[in-house]
Amino acid sequence: MLVPGLPAIAEQYGITLSTVVALVLTIFLLTFAIGPLFLAALSKMYGCTWILHGGVFFSIIFNLACTYAPNTGSLIAFRFIAMALYSVSPLIGPVIGPVTGGFIAETIGPNWVFIVIAALSSVSFLIGIPFLRETYAPVIWRRRTLASGDVEKANISKTANLLFPTFQQLFP
């Protein structure tokens, strides 16, 4: 969604180097390599739903921060953090993003691209909170045993084998 607004963003922030303009656009690709390293491990420990909800929430915050970024460095940093926390956009983003972003950037301005992304993420967040349920079996099992009051069964040392199986458990 950002491509059509890049010339206006470059003018707004006084960016003259084409490399820095390209970095504003492509910084999110780096997040596809770094974000899953942390978020995948966290989702195995705490479940996918809360990690996804947290990612969407912070993505909204940092997309709004992109709108009001005071300089190029903060714009790049906010964009990096926003995309690292919400990496579901590759599914539909490359298809509909440039068309939508071009329309938004040309009609109401490039900063509105970030506001629209935050608004759409907010809708996703509000719909996801009540309807998205946990699907990772070890986390569901641990929550059920804690709810039943059997603390011994829910002991983290015993569930650790389910969350992080050893090599012998994976390949008997």
UniProtKB/TrEMBL annotation:
Entry keyword Membrane: yes
Protein localization: Membrane
InterPro entries tied to this protein: MFS_dom, MFS_trans_sf
Gene3D superfamilies: Multidrug resistance protein D
Main location: membrane
Sections of the chain in a coiled coil: none
Record's protein name: Major facilitator superfamily (MFS) profile domain-containing protein
Membrane topology: Multi-pass membrane protein
